[in-house]
Amino acid sequence: MFDFGRPDEEAATGLNNKINRQPLGITTMAEKIVLNGLTKKFGPILAVDNISLSVATGEVLGFLGPNGAGKSTTMRMLTGFIEPTSGTAEVCGLDVTRHPVEIKRRIGYLPEGAPTYGDMTPESYLGFIAEIRGFNGPEIRRRIEAVTEKVDIGSVLRQPIDTLSKGFKRRVGLAQAMLHDPEILIMDEPTDGLDPNQKHQVRKLIREMSADRAIIISTHILEEVEAVCSRAVIIAHGRLLADSTPEELLSRAPDHNAVMITVDTNKSDAVKKTLEGLDAVKNTRSEKTANGATRLVIRPKKGKLIADDVSQLLRSKNIPVQEMFVERGSLDDVFRKITKDGKSAGGGTNA
Amino acid sequence: MRNIAIIAKREIKGYFTTPLAYIFIVIFLAMSGAFAFYIGGFFNREQASLATFFLYHPWLYLMLVPAIAMRLWAEERKTGTIEILMTLPISTSEAVLGKYLAAWGFTGIALTLTFPMWITVNVLGEPDNGVILAGYLGSFFMAGAFLAIGSCISALTKNQVIAFIVAATVCFLFTMSGLELVLSFFRGWAPEILVRTIASMSFLTHFGAILKGVIDIRDLIFFGTLIAFWLFANVIIIDLKKAA
Q1: Smallest Cα–Cα separation from A62: which of A252, A335, A351, A336?
Q2: Residue of chain A with shortest Cα separation from B5
Q3: Are B163 and B154 in contact (CB under 8 A)?
Q4: Cβ contacts (< 8 Å) between A185 and chain B: which residues?
């Protein structure tokens, strides 16, 4: 019914990505993480399929994808927890399978579900992490105090982690990842299980830390991508389907920059016809609202802004409008579109 | 070394923050005493020795040590903390050794707490304390061998019950391998050399030799080699699971 696909544009961004990507071996200092053809098979199941990307200092990369897309598997390979079947992952110029201990020193990692030793208290747990990370004596206490304040767990430092709420557990996990002030932070769903205030706090923290670090977070909360990520990749069925800024992804939404107006239902057909007369309008769609009025969704042609034209036209024709606003489109729509397209194009290799 | 010590320290602390340590120690003490006094006839023998006490250690360990070992890796896998542990800047061998030494140290503590037995025989008579020391040493090494087997098997699964049953079975075979029960199964078809090898693996034989008070270095080497072998396999298994 509507023209969802924009094959020309997608092909163009795909090409850009390839050009932007640094070939292996001439990594600059700013490029902290370089994945090249990273692939993981679990028996016959292809979990991660030939993923290549790089992340530089100052970037916050968001991994988006449905459950089981391969986000966690990619992160596990990157942190040296599992080994890739083929392809390479480099952290600070070091290959993760050849220098596992070196790269682990540089990475702060929050695994999926934020596992912790439940019978320990946050204080003794963080003390253990600090010792293993090579800190001594007063430095350990200083580190624990600093990170405790950052994630706000001071009130529960001496309670067994098992007795804490989900939000506190998650924040203890975050503290563990940030304790040694790593140049690379990899966090698998950092805000899962937090309430809106805590989510806000953690996002603020990630933004603050991003300046001198390379950060990767995975999430399926799309507003989070807009809130903290400078770049987003979409992964489904193990494959990288998009690599772009959140803004650019948003512009792929079918309703991006569409104008929504609500009018009387008995006048809606006439209004619709009038609006479709505008040059910049691609098409319009009408839908009933809950209170019996009709909402018209007026979509612009590619790259046009039509809010001004529409409002002038409505005023000149004296058409009463109950409400009017410009739709930004939602990442949800883009996400659904890209992941579903990817599925059909993939031929169901790992369905 | 530093990393091994840090991990072992955390593990040992972990034993004592849960009831596990206390339950284990109480049961170990009660059962080792009960075996020695009631089944072994400690008083009826009218001998100032701990032979009847040590005699039942293999059977006690057969049940209790796999219970300590089953959680070593299976629990880390189940709760996901293995992902934290193995993404810290330590090597797999450091993690395996740290956890193992903590568990071994813990059984050492339990064994040490049987010292009232030693005091008792010294009050009642004049035992050969050298033989008793050898018995403690042999018992400690045997517990270490059971633990290494259990730790390795625990790394194979995230299910602690499976880890327990498989480890107990393997330990049972090692304990019994000198007895006809096991050997007659092989005798019909296996070459003599294999039967002898299996017989030489018997914990009972080696432990029995130590109990006589002669610490033959070969018996300690036997347990030491066994521990090294199973811990090496433990490291390999964890690394293989990483690549799988």
Answers
A1: A335
A2: A132
A3: yes
A4: none
Residues of B in contact with A104 (CB under 8 A): 87-90
- The complex's ipTM? 0.88
Q: Where are the beta strands (DSSP E) in A158-251?
A: 184-188, 214-219, 231-236, 239-244
**E strand or H helix at A283:** strand A281-288
Q: Rounded CA gap, B2 and B6, in Å? A: 6
- Asked whether the predicted pLDDT for residue A8 surpasses 50, the reply is no
Spatial separation of the C-alpha atoms in residues A139 and A97, rounded to whole Å = 30
Amino acid letter, B98: G
Query: CA-CA distance, B142 to B54, in Å (whole number)?
Result: 11
Contacts of A93-97 with C-beta under 8 Å, sequence gap 24+, read: A93/A27
Nearest-Cα distance to chain B for A36, in Å, is 18
pLDDT at residue number A296: 85
Task: Give me the pLDDT at residue A342, please.
Answer: 57
Angle, helices B20-34/B2-17, rounded to nearest 10 degrees: 80
Interface touch A83/B242, C-beta < 8 Å:
yes
Selected for mutation to probe chain A from B84, B92, B240 (highest A CB count within 10 Å) is: B84
Give the pLDDT band of residue A275 (cuts 50, 70, 90).
confident
**CA–CA separation, A309 and A307 (whole Å):** 6
Tell me the two tokens of residue A64: 């988006």
pLDDT of residue B177: 83
Given pLDDT bands bounded at 50, 70 and 90, which one contains residue A29?
low
Q: Does A120 touch chain B (CB under 8 A)?
A: yes
Q: Do A111 and B13 touch (CB under 8 A)?
A: no
Contact A131, B94 (CB under 8 A): no
Query: Rounded to whole angstroms, how far apart are CA atoms A260 and A119?
Result: 55
Among B229, B227, B6, CA closest to B99:
B6
Spatial contact of B67 and B168, defined as CB atoms under 8 Å apart: no
Residues whose CB is less than 8 angstroms from the CB of residue B125 and which lie 6 or more positions away in sequence, other chains included:
B47, B48
- Residue A2 pLDDT more than 80? no
Task: Work out the angle at residue B175's Cα, subtended by the Cα atoms of residues B170 and B177, and round it to the nearest 5 degrees.
Answer: 90
pLDDT at B72: 94
- Check residue A169 and give its pLDDT: 93
Region A165-173: what's the mean pLDDT? Answer: 92
Give the residues of chain B that fall short of pLDDT 70: 46
Q: What is the pLDDT of residue B102?
A: 96
Contact between A163 and A52 (Cβ < 8 Å) = no
